[in-house]
Structures are given as structure tokens and as C-alpha cells.
Specification:
Blueprint: H1 2-26, H2 29-52, H3 55-62, H4 64-76, H5 83-100
Helix pairs in contact: 1-2, 1-4, 3-5, 4-5
């Protein structure tokens, strides 16, 4: 059950971020509403997930959202992968891992 909540949280967060970026590029209110609706579902999912796992593990797991959004943006929007973006993702992930130890 925990794995389902974790997977839903990561996937919905990534899709919501992509929808929000699409809505900014296309100036589309439907995509904007869809992105924020998914974020509402993520908040509800997070509520139940935090009841199932310790908070330090929750933050470590949710740091993978930075990585999934980074990869999805690279694939969907053909954004460049540069040293600055990669370093940012690595530093966020490392910080969360250190915090959760």
C-alpha cells in the first residue's frame, strides 16, 4: 500500500509540473487547472502517505520529484541538460539524503 501511495505521489507531481509548464507556454487555462487539480490530489495522497511512513523517509522519497521532473522536461520539452541543472538536482538529492540519515 505504501508503494502505491509513493508512486501516485511521484507520478502526479511530475505530470502536474509538466502541465503547468505547458499551460505557461501555450497560455491554456485548462492545462493550468489540470495541473493544480493534480497538486490537490498530491496533497491528499501526501496526507495519507505521511501517516504510513516516517517524515524523514517521506522527504527523501519526495526528493525524487526533482529528478523525475528534470528527466521529463528534458524528454518532453527538449530542454538542455547542462552542468548547472545537473548539479542542482544532485545537491538537492544529496541534501535530502544527508538530512534523512
Amino acid at each position: 500500500m505504501k508503494a502505491v501511495f509513493i508512486l501516485i505521489n511521484i507520478v502526479f507531481t511530475t505530470i502536474a509540473q509538466i502541465l503547468l509548464k505547458f499551460s505557461a507556454v501555450k497560455n491554456n487555462l485548462f492545462l493550468l487547472a489540470g495541473g493544480y487539480f493534480l497538486f490537490v490530489l498530491v496533497v491528499i495522497d501526501s496526507y495519507f502517505l505521511m501517516k504510513l511512513i516516517d517524515f524523514k523517509y517521506f522527504t527523501a522519497i519526495m526528493s525524487t520529484n526533482y529528478l523525475t521532473v528534470f528527466i521529463a522536461s528534458t524528454i518532453i520539452f527538449r530542454e538542455s541538460i547542462n552542468k548547472t541543472k545537473t548539479l542542482g538536482v544532485v545537491l538537492v538529492a544529496a541534501g535530502v539524503i544527508i538530512f534523512s540519515i
